[in-house]
Design a protein that fits this description.
The protein is mainly beta and 329 residues long. 9% of the residues lie in helices and 37% in strands. It is built from four helices and 23 strands. The strands form five sheets. Strands 1-21-18-23-16-15-14 form a seven-stranded antiparallel β-sheet, with no helix packed on it. Strand 14 and strand 15 form a beta hairpin. It binds zinc ion (ZN). The site of zinc ion has 4 residues, from loops.
Length: 329
């Protein structure tokens, strides 16, 4: 029997080149960005076969999330251990300097459009930074039909068919699978999503990839097939305030794939839960997680996985801090 006890786990970010990316993640994450090209995504917790997050602290340093999932399923996942063989959420920060492609991810209603071994993908964003001209599109205007959408792709007027949001820092945007969406013009978001990499591109604004010198491929037929034309619950979310003191706790997302709260304040509060894993994300300010008498520092952009075995911990802010806490239903 391996008696290793799990502890709060921090992971090395995996930076990804994207033609639409920028360099803003340099000021958000403590690990320096590679090179000087555009970095669009930092995968901060990923149990993808091709991109495995590596533990950055403690005795398990250097091991991957996949190895820990395999070696310590109960300690890590608690009561969820029988349901998941890989960690079910993929967490990222996105720096969308330019517009991403207009895209859609399939829902479980379209198993034929989900490659073997992958899942549907519902995702959600919490806006970290936005500029005056920043843009989020989430969902189709209600008058849009498959016919009018196809027309707009041909004449380049698709933006007129999309629900437009002018994002500001702190906004919460829900993108259930089947929702047409994109974002860009200098917006930075934290993204929580199902652990899936299935994306169908509808439109790409004529972007030429500076590496391949080519237009990126579109998958219009598959994209049109997965769009939920009746989807009504995408877009800006009104946070549900659960407590106002001693810290403010708001529930931003509550869906079948994830729950996400924002906690803000200066007083000590608890994080984690008994017999299930939680994730804590530093958004503003700093503080520390106390576990077994040991402090684990949480700064802006830091992501900590609290294994089920760790349970409930105290979080001590140093001054005013804003954290996100994520659970798996
Ligand atoms: Zn997406």
């Amino acid at each position: 029997m391996d008696k290793t006890r799990l502890y709060p786990l921090r992971f090395e970010p995996i930076y990804q080149y994207r033609l639409w990316g920028g360099r803003r993640l340099a000021s958000l994450l403590s690990v320096p960005l590679p090179g000087d090209g555009p970095i669009g995504e930092a995968w901060v917790l990923s149990d993808r076969t091709d991109h495995q997050s590596q533990i950055a602290n403690g005795p398990l340093k250097g091991q991957t999330i996949g190895q820990v999932m395999k070696q310590f399923p109960e300690s890590l996942m608690g009561k969820l251990s029988s349901r998941f063989t890989r960690f079910p959420l993929l967490l990222k920060f996105l720096d969308a300097h330019e517009m991403l492609s207009v895209q859609v991810h399939p829902s479980d209603a379209h198993p034929d459009l989900i490659p073997a071994g992958d899942t549907a993908k519902t995702e959600a964003w919490v806006v970290v930074e936005a500029e005056k001209g920043s843009q989020i599109y989430a969902g189709l205007k209600s008058s849009t039909t498959p016919g009018s959408l196809s027309e707009s792709l041909k004449d380049g007027t698709i933006a007129e068919r999309l629900v437009s949001i002018s994002p500001k820092s702190g906004d919460a945007v829900f993108i259930p699978a089947g929702t047409v969406h994109t974002l860009g013009n200098d917006v930075v978001v934290f993204e929580v999503q199902q652990n899936s990499d299935v994306t169908y591109r509808l439109y790409d604004w004529g972007h030429i990839d500076s590496v391949t010198k080519e237009l990126r491929p579109l998958q219009v037929d598959q994209a049109l097939a997965c769009i939920d034309f009746g989807s009504g619950n995408s877009g800006l979310v009104t946070p549900r305030v659960e407590t106002t003191g001693p810290v403010e706790r708001e529930r931003l997302f509550d869906c079948a794939a994830f729950l996400l709260w924002r906690v803000r304040g200066q007083a000590q509060f608890t994080v984690g839960a008994i017999a299930e894993p939680h994730v804590l994300v530093g958004i503003e300010g700093s503080g520390r997680i106390m576990h077994d008498g040991t402090p684990y520092a949480v700064g802006k952009g830091d992501v900590w996985l609290l294994p089920a075995e760790v349970g409930v911990c105290a979080f001590e802010p140093s001054g005013e801090a804003t954290m996100l806490e994520i659970a798996i239903p």
